[in-house]
Design goal:
With about 100 residues, the chain is α+β, with helices and mostly antiparallel strands. The chain contains 1 helix and 4 strands. The chain has a two-stranded antiparallel sheet. The chain has a two-stranded antiparallel ribbon with strand order 3-4.
């Protein structure tokens, strides 16, 4: 966290897991769990959030590299529905049930 303070970042959380074994290698829920002034016990790893926005840069880069999209591609922000074989129709939502991603 000390490295990020010049960028006005004061809170962060991370969990690093070994994909082969499932072992948790690193677990940091907050910069200082016992700092009551800055809600230190607010564990960001266990917070109910979606990873979508965090993963977007990686997915966009992969799509750009594979020429699936180009820098001028425009994405429509509209509800989307997918037919899943053997299941009901699936429509992605945010954690707060907002249909617009």
């Amino acid at each position: 966290m000390r490295n990020f303070k010049p960028y006005n970042v004061h809170h962060a959380a991370a969990i690093v897991i070994d994909n082969q074994t499932g072992e948790v290698l690193v677990y940091v829920g907050s910069p200082d769990y016992f700092d009551t002034q800055t809600m230190g016990s607010n564990d960001g790893v266990q917070a109910l959030r979606q990873p979508g926005s965090t993963l977007k840069p990686f997915l966009y880069q992969l799509a750009l590299e594979n020429q699936v999209i180009n820098p001028n591609t425009i994405w429509a922000d509209v509800p989307t529905y997918y037919a899943i074989p053997g299941a009901q129709v699936y429509s992605p939502t945010n954690y707060n049930q907002d249909k617009f991603l």
